[in-house]
Each structure stands twice: as C-alpha cells, then as structure tokens.
Amino acid sequence: MIELKTQFPIGLNVNWIDATLAPEDDFLKDWLLDLTSLTARLKSHCDVFRVDVVGQHIECCQAHEANEAIKEGEDVLVREVVLFCDDVPHVFARSLLPLTSLTGNERKLANLGEQPLGQVLFNNPKLHREILQLAELEPTQRVCELALMLNCTVEHNLWGRRSLFTIDNKPLMVAEIFLPAAKAYQNWHCTGQHSRKLVDSINTI
User: Fold this and answer.
1) R_g (Cα) of the chain, nearest Å
2) pLDDT at 1
3) Contacts made by residues 27-34, CB under 8 angstroms, sequence distance 24+
4) How do strand 17-18 and strand 49-60 relate by DSSP bridges?
5) Which residues contact 46 (CB under 8 A, 6 or more apart)?
6) Are residues 176 and 91 in contact, defined by beta-carbon separation less than 8 angstroms?
C-alpha cells in the first residue's frame, strides 16, 4: 500500500443518483441496496478480511460532497481505505466525519487505524441511516486508477453507494465503491452492462 498512500486523497467527484435508479441486475442491486453492515457481509464471504488505510486527514468539505447535514467548507476528517477479502481488493471506501461530530463517544472514530469503520458504526444502537445514493463510475474515473494499482482489470463500469449516517444527531458520510473483483459483480460479467456493450460492438463490426 506504500504507492497507494502517495495517491491520497483519491477523492470521489462523481454523479450521485437516487437509489431508485439502481442497475437492473438483481445480484448487483442486492449488494448496492443492502442496508446491513457491508463489513459483516464481506466477512461472511471470506476467510481473511482486512482494512488497508490509504490515508486520513482534515480538509474542508467540498461542494460535491456537501449536503444538508454536512456543509460546504466545514472541516471534516477524510478517511480512505480499501477492504480486502482473502487478499483480493473488494471495496474502496471514503468517509467524511465532520469535526463537530467527533465528540463524546464518537471521538474514537478519529483513531480507528485498520479497524473497519462499518463494524464500529453498526455496533452502535443509536446509528441511523438518513439517505442512500448510488453512482456508476466509468473506467476513466480516478478510483478506477486505484483499481489498476491494485492489479485489478477494469473491464466494465464500477458501481458504488454513499450513505449519510447519524449518531445522536451527529452526521457522517460513508461512500463505498465496489472494485472489479468484488462479489457484487459475479453475475455482471454474464448479464450486465459490460456484456451488452460488448455484444453491441461486435454487431457493428
């Protein structure tokens, strides 16, 4: 991860859409719209789960990541990680934690190290998910460059989601992008968008 740390922050300046516009593929949609802990679900699909921290620092919230709860220009702690299942990179996650939210019991969220944020959040009975949005990322997006650095072949658009959570009215944003080797795409190669585009290109030859 040394090379990846030099790339921090990766960022996610993408076009987020409403969850009702999820892809047609039922298997991928199930992963995208799953409201339970993604960390727990990934752990159930592998023997060894780990978190590699790409980087973490404080910056001002940018316009494309701001919302009603996290304002543009507000100081936020940005944390970017890659989630691995059996040494295979599955998810890139970018979290925004406003400094005003890192008070009381939530101060510990600033010092997680390689502990998964999702595991900590979903163990808190006060956690509430406010919104869920989706995004489709073309191979030219910067996060796809991250996938290439992780020796993943990007043969189709990637999908991700972001959620606004609150704990005792303290907001935080978590975005998760499924990398090419993610189990969320296991049916995508056969029935998904990439295959349809490939067929279309063959028919035009």
Assistant:
1) 17
2) 61
3) 27/184, 27/186, 27/187, 27/188, 28/159, 28/184, 28/185, 28/187, 28/188, 28/192, 31/178, 31/182, 31/183, 31/184, 32/134, 32/159, 32/160, 32/161, 32/178, 32/184, 33/132, 33/161
4) unpaired
5) 85, 86
6) yes
Contact 192, 25 (CB under 8 A): yes
CA angle 36–22–51, rounded 5-degree value: 45
Under 8 Å between Cβ of 144 and 159:
no
User: Which single residue is written with the structure tokens 């978590």?
Assistant: 174
**pTM of the predicted protein model:** 0.90
Task: List the structure tokens of 89.
Answer: 């990179």
User: What ranges in 95-152 are assigned the alpha helix state H?
Assistant: 117-122, 142-149
| φ and ψ of 51, to 5 deg | -120, 125
- What would the pLDDT profile of 102-154 be if each residue is shown by its tens digit? 999 999 999 999 999 999 999 999 999 988 999 999 998 999 989 999 999 99
